[in-house]
Design a protein that fits this description.
It contains 26 helices and no strands. It has 634 residues and is mostly helical. α8 packs across α12. The protein starts with 9 loop residues before the first helix and ends with a helix.
């Protein structure tokens, strides 16, 4: 390697290693502090007495990973800033969480969100189905997250990609397994700080190196990358205002009742505190992800100023390497800064991995172990929870090695594949919460049909060799690559994540996948942003039809503690008498009283349920009494 070429030096390795060691140290601290994580309540829920700010920051970085740090800038670099509308959706989805999921979940004091499904349907089978689908989705997601920092480290250090995957997984497993939820949350806070410092460093230095803000926006605007608006209603156009904002709001709503989110919501002492967590995390999430997207604009302007687009000149082989390539070059005279970027990239992935592993541990413990092995002591169950983190970490590593041959931007790959898991789960939660006459058979039919159909489409989008994809925007100049290459990085021949068959860098056109593809590729060409919406709609249609055919319950007999009146959420301004008529016979007007009684631990023998729901059917009264007693024990 030439002396002028950018490379990592000792200070970079020290900076990077320090971030890793501090994360492990936080885990060790909580392993030996306080109750030493000896009970499941402390290990999985932090004793339900966590503070708002650290939990909000933890929730924010839970869904920020290498996909954010590498994928979002790459998306903007090749397709433009329109992707930002998808980031704005997180504010709206968290507001929906405050409106719907917190009032529904927090009073139940559950550890696993899928305990709610058992309470709703009085069926452990539905609960196990939900937690199994969610667990598979989380493992797939963690596998993708693991691959991001691996490709970056491999690209800038020649560190073997398999070793990088194992390293990241091992660190995350170590502090999560020994420190529990408290360690996860406080390492998330530290990693959030590192991530923000790294992002701001890249933005400030990159903007200056690109010629300043005014010059940067002039260059990017001329390239067509400030393409904020496209109101085309065609669902086969990859990105439009409608698919990015509306489709993403529907998709990201599922993140609010994701197990990682519910653990944080349930760890708060009050419902008001849980609301504050979501209200803070939504805008904060949008802000930090916007910074990542903005890095894509900076990268294009920087390489344009150098006269050498690294993608067009084949110095890198996929867009996900744009930011590491730029970082190593702009910081080549500032030792330690490239290491800081790597630390921020790894911190983003570690926060996601640890949260995912903690949620999988909670699901296994609460949904499988406790109900099946009731004689186990709490100490033994806690040990099992800790060991399960290791097992799930190994599973994520396995998935990471499996995704080598999937082509396409990392954001699209993630959203497309995960829709097969999130769509049926989101449909199941909406169906359970808003349909008083929902049945177990309808829930099963909805999950199976939605998951099968969306998984088929997502696999077609990822593996079809004939599918025509949306072309990239025009590339930057390459006339100065010879001069730039003399002082550039050594990011060459890194073909590990995606092959060189990505869309050709040509001037973009109005592209409709349906019109320009043939056969099954026409179906596969639907925008990946609409997959979750399609899956949820399919679930609600199939689930409702199956419930209608197989026999629906009397709405007056359903337990309204586990259902919400949709009319009150959509049209709260309507007259109360009219909204009550829209309840369809379900006693929603008594819901709050029932929740208050449950929250206070009042048994049914102390509260005459007949006076609450005005029913004279003795069998119904008995059913509700037994259910209240079981729920109170939670």
């Amino acid at each position: 390697m030439d002396e002028d070429k950018a490379r990592l030096v000792l200070v970079d390795y020290i900076t990077f290693g320090s971030a890793i060691l501090i994360s492990i140290a936080i885990g060790l601290y909580f392993a030996f502090a306080g109750g030493k994580q000896k009970t499941t309540n402390e290990y999985l829920m932090g004793n339900r007495h966590m503070k708002v700010l650290p939990v909000a920051l933890s929730l924010m970085v839970t869904f920020e990973s290498s996909i954010t740090m590498l994928g979002f800038p790459a998306e903007v670099y090749v397709h433009g800033i329109m992707f930002w509308w998808a980031l704005l959706a997180f504010i709206f989805s968290n507001f929906i969480g405050v409106l719907i999921w917190v009032p529904l979940i927090h009073p139940l004091k559950v550890t696993s969100v899928y305990q709610y499904l058992e309470l709703r349907y009085q069926s452990r089978g539905i609960r196990l189905m939900g937690t199994s689908v969610a667990g598979l989705g989380t493992i797939f997601y963690l596998g993708i997250v693991l691959y991001g920092p691996a490709i970056a480290l491999d690209a800038v250090t020649d560190f073997p990609i398999w070793a990088s995957i194992v390293l990241v997984a091992a660190v995350s497993v170590l502090y999560t397994s020994i420190g529990g939820l408290k360690a996860v949350i406080w390492t998330d806070v530290f990693q959030c700080l590192v991530m923000l410092i790294g992002m701001f460093s890249v933005i400030i230095k990159g903007t200056l190196s690109a010629g300043g803000t005014a010059k940067m926006f002039e260059v990017v605007g001329n390239s067509g990358r400030l393409n904020f608006f496209n109101f085309d209603p065609d669902p086969f156009v990859r990105h439009t205002f409608w698919s990015l904002l509306i489709g993403s709001i529907i998709r990201t709503t599922g993140l609010v009742f994701n197990q990682s989110s519910v653990q944080r919501i349930s760890s708060m002492p009050t419902q008001r505190a849980a609301n504050k967590v979501l209200l803070f995390a939504g805008p904060a999430f949008t802000f930090t992800m916007s910074l990542a997207a903005f890095e894509g604009i900076i990268a294009y302007a920087y390489f344009h100023s150098k006269g050498c687009d690294p993608l067009a000149s084949k110095q890198i082989t996929n867009s996900n390497q744009v930011i590491p390539f730029m970082v190593l070059d702009i910081f080549k005279t500032l030792p330690g800064m490239s290491g800081l970027f790597l630390a921020s990239l790894f911190s983003a992935s570690l926060s996601t991995l640890s949260s995912g592993l903690a949620s999988l541990s909670a699901q296994l413990t609460e949904d499988f172990i406790k109900p099946t092995f009731k004689s186990l002591t709490d100490v033994k169950i806690t040990i099992i929870a800790k060991l399960s983190v290791v097992v799930f970490g190994m599973a994520a590593v396995g998935v990471s090695f499996m995704i080598v041959n999937i082509e396409g931007p990392i954001t699209q790959v993630t959203f497309s594949i995960l829709s097969a898991f999130t769509a049926p789960l989101t449909g199941l939660m909406f169906y359970s919460a808003y349909f008083p006459r929902a049945t177990k058979k309808g829930a099963v039919a909805g999950v199976v049909s939605s998951m099968t159909f969306i998984f088929w489409i997502s696999m077609g989008q990822s593996f079809s060799t004939t599918l025509k994809k949306t072309p990239y925007l025009p590339a930057g100049p390459t006339d100065q690559c010879a001069a730039f290459g003399e002082n550039s990085t050594s990011l060459l021949n890194t073909t590990y994540l995606y092959s060189s068959t990505e869309p050709t860098i040509t001037p973009t056109s109005v592209f409709s996948g349906f019109r320009e593809n043939e056969g099954l590729d026409r179906l596969y060409a639907i925008s990946y942003q609409w997959l979750s919406t399609l899956g949820i709609f399919l679930f609600l249609v199939i689930g409702s039809l199956v419930s209608y055919v197989t026999g629906r319950p009397n709405p007056a007999e359903v337990d309204v503690r586990f259902i919400l009146p949709i009319i009150d959420h959509l049209f709260p301004f309507l007259p109360k008498r009219f909204r009550k008529w829209c309840y369809g016979g379900a006693p929603f007007e008594k819901r709050q009283q029932l929740l208050d009684n449950m929250d206070k631990g009042i048994m049914d023998q102390e509260v005459d349920f007949i006076s609450i729901v005005d029913t004279e059917k003795e069998t119904n009264v008995k059913a509700f009494k037994e259910d209240d007693i079981n729920t109170a024990h939670l």
